[in-house]
Amino acid sequence: MNPATFLQNLFGLEGQTAIVIGGTGVLGGAISDGLAQAGARVIVAGRNESRGTARVNQITELGGEASFQQVDATSRNSLQALRDEVDRDRSRTDILVNCFGVNSATSHEEVEDADWHRVIDGNLTATHLACQLFAPAMAKAGGGAILNIGSVTSQLPLSRVFAYSASKAAVVNLTQNLAREYASQNVRINALCPGFFPAEQNRRILDEKRVSQIMAQTPMARFGEPQELVGAALLLVSRQAGSFVTGEDLYVDGGFTAMRF
Questions:
Q1: Largest Cα–Cα distance of the chain, in whole Å?
Q2: What is the DSSP string of 158-174?
Q3: How far is 234 from 13, CA to CA, in rounded Å?
Q4: Which in 67, 110, 228, 256 has the greatest CB count within 10 A?
Q5: Residue 19: helix, strand or coil by DSSP?
Q6: What is the per-residue pLDDT for 208?
Q7: Residue 108 has what DSSP assignment?
Q8: Which residues in the chain land under pLDDT 50?
Q9: pLDDT of amino acid 197
Q10: Residue 46 phi/psi, 5° resolution?
């Protein structure tokens, strides 16, 4: 077999529809690019229309197929409208990526109630709502794959991001529980846990001293590049390569979590 054909059969997403909630962001945008280049028809979903349109244009220039849908990831009604519109247009959703997320950097004593709930709602509740709306529809349609985004902080502490760490740990736990729930219905649900990447939320909360500390704790001694998430994402959503993988939390972190040993 031709190597290209082999890889295409293993990882290709031709004919599938993928929704990336948070595809307007840095990491979600890179995953959107990767899914499209693997053959999926990608719906870039998010709040910011200008960023979404720019991402769609970039995917189109690369030869992929994409469109933008505006959505509020923390609103059940908005997510339901997104699901229903995609179902009407594409007949089904094969892949869902929950990549929307927010962060806040304060000491635990200074975390205000409103900020705590904003982070928990943005990371955990948004993931829960999307899974609750899309997983049953996928099961009814014969199966699908959901990829939730955790974090290296899902299992390792990092100062000043208490709500974020708690929410991402809960996302991994939710993923594992839902994977067990839907395994017999051909819906695979996994979590991808990035280490430290140059996403907007990291730029806002990390000062020069903290960046140096992270570099010292990361065996590869650098931040990840957004495109370095694509291979892991393709594995977890692929019908062939990931066919027996569900309930996993895959860390892409330059060896950061290995430091726990």
A1: 60
A2: -TTBHHHHHHHHHHHHH
A3: 9
A4: 256
A5: strand
A6: 61
A7: G
A8: none
A9: 86
A10: 180, -175
Half-sphere exposure of 56 (CA within 13 A, CB side): 18
Three-state SS at 191: strand
CB 44, CB 122: distance < 8 Å: no
Tokens (6 digits) for 48: 């910011």
What's 210-227 look like in SS3? HHHHHHHHCCCCCCCCHH
Phi first, then psi, for residue 19 (nearest 5°) are -105, 130
Token pair 């200008």 is found at 50
What confidence score (pLDDT) does residue 210 get?
66
Model pLDDT, residue 201: 55
Contacts of 200 (CB under 8 A, 6+ apart): 25, 26
State how far the Cα of 139 lies from the Cα of 122, in Å rounded to an integer. Answer: 25
Q: How many CB atoms lie within 10 A of CB 72?
A: 17
- Give me 6's structure tokens: 């082999």
Cβ-contact 168, 157 below 8 angstroms: no
**Contact in structure between 222 and 255 (CB atoms under 8 Å):** no
Q: What is the DSSP string of 57-97?
A: HHHHHTT-EEEEEE--TT-HHHHHHHHHHHHHHHS---EEE
Q: At what angle do helices 26-37 and 230-237 cross, to 10 degrees?
A: 60
Our CA angle for 142, 147, 151, nearest 5°, is: 160
d(CA 230, CA 52): 19
Cβ–Cβ < 8 Å for 103, 201: yes
- Amino acid identity, residue 247? G
Which residues are annotated as catalytic?
164
Tell me what pLDDT residue 102 has: 86
258: which 2 tokens?
A: 């290995």
Domain boundaries, the chain: 14-250
